[in-house]
Specification:
By secondary structure, the chain is of the alpha/beta class. The chain is built from ten helices and 18 strands. Belongs to the Gfo/Idh/MocA family.
Length: about 375
């Protein structure tokens, strides 16, 4: 339920990674949020980031992270830091009573994420990861189709893929290929989206077993550059995903039920910022001469109100924090942390399967 009088929620940006540019733009566009501070490892870098990204002139500039965490005027910290630093800084943020918007992958292991979530719960702060597409109105509309037993039926299988062809400079120097910074590599970066999409389609019911697909590619530093896996549920559902830094930009999602199919080719970042579509097919067959589908697929459009999905993420996080400020820690929505944890569980199971020679790994 929305507040009667919306509160403007103050964000602090901790670190000036590339994704922080996109999030800063979203905060600037969100009606219930503002950037109140930026911190980097030097005041010069933080100041340059603020100037380049239209950060309000009155925002504070910090040359290290600690003063921002101690700033009493900040409500939420956006943490676009390397994954290996998430445990330290997200835990400290929660201990300082700052709400946490954490970039994905949210942790290196489930055990690390559990420490982060425990700190958030102990201090009554909201946790949310930075997966943007789940906040798009298209996603809600797709959920309606999947929940329609007459049109879609029972979910039986899901396929997802996210790949992009990274340049040599990325494969050599990007944070996402450095084992001490982001040891999950393509699995943690691109694979997070595929796994999250599968769990979303399955209404966040965890699979029983995960099996990595033979043929994964690992760098000479031991970081995953491409991999895939199959997921299996006790009720017979199955899913597959593939992720890679080595092949052309692709991002598709297909969910198949007993009565219908949902498909889209831009589920992470829509082809157009202010409008998105997806295809549905229901109870389809062929005509008498088997020359065409009857009925044919239907194209559904959503998100034509001009609000990008990253702005919706910021609006939702700010709304939740605003309600906590009014109603207390009892208003914290712990479902966001639970969804992040399930995604992390599957990622870690895939990595374990790869390391053990592509054997099945059960998720407890």
């Amino acid at each position: 339920m929305s507040l009667v009088e919306p509160i403007t929620i103050r964000f602090g940006i901790v670190g000036c990674a590339e994704i922080a540019r996109k999030v800063s733009r979203a905060i600037n566009l969100a009606p219930n949020a503002q950037i109140a501070a930026v911190a980097s490892r030097s005041p010069e870098k933080a100041g340059a980031f603020a100037k380049a990204n239209n950060v309000p002139a009155e925002a504070k500039i910090y040359g290290s992270y600690e003063p921002l965490l101690d700033d009493p005027d900040i409500d939420i910290l956006h943490l676009p830091l390397p994954t290996s630093l998430h445990l330290k800084w997200a835990t400290l943020a929660a201990q300082k009573k700052k709400h946490v918007l954490l970039e994905k992958p949210v942790a290196v292991t489930v055990a690390e994420l559990d420490q982060i979530l425990a700190a958030c719960e102990a201090n009554g702060v909201q946790f949310m990861d930075g997966t943007m597409w789940v906040h798009h109105p298209r996603t809600a509309k797709m959920r309606e189709f999947l929940d329609d037993k007459r049109r879609f039926g029972e979910l039986r299988t899901i396929q997802s893929c996210f790949t992009f062809a990274a340049p040599e400079s990325f494969l050599k120097d990007d944070i996402r290929v450095k084992p001490d910074l982001d040891s999950l590599g393509a699995l943690g970066d691109a694979g997070w989206y595929g796994v999250r999409a599968i769990l979303w389609a399955a209404d966040y019911h965890l699979p029983k077993t995960v099996v990595a697909t033979p043929g994964s590619v690992t760098s000479d530093r031991g970081v995953i550059l491409a991999c895939g896996a199959s997921l299996h549920w006790e009720d017979g559902k199955s899913a597959t995903f593939h992720c890679s830094f080595l092949t052309h930009l692709t991002m598709f999602l297909t969910a198949i039920g007993t009565q219908g199919t949902l498909q889209l080719n831009d589920f992470i970042i829509p082809f157009q910022e202010h409008e998105a579509s997806f295809s549905t097919s229901s109870r389809a067959g062929f005509d008498d001469q088997v020359t065409r589908w009857e009925p044919g697929p239907r194209q559904e459009v959503a998100g034509i109100d001009g609000v990008p999905q990253e702005v919706r993420l910021i609006e939702e996080m700010a709304r939740l924090v605003g309600e906590i400020k009014v109603g207390g820690a009892g208003k914290v929505d712990r479902e966001w942390g639970a969804r992040s944890r399930k995604t992390q569980q599957v990622l870690n199971a895939v990595k374990e399967s790869i390391e053990k020679g592509f054997v099945p790994v059960e998720i407890a």
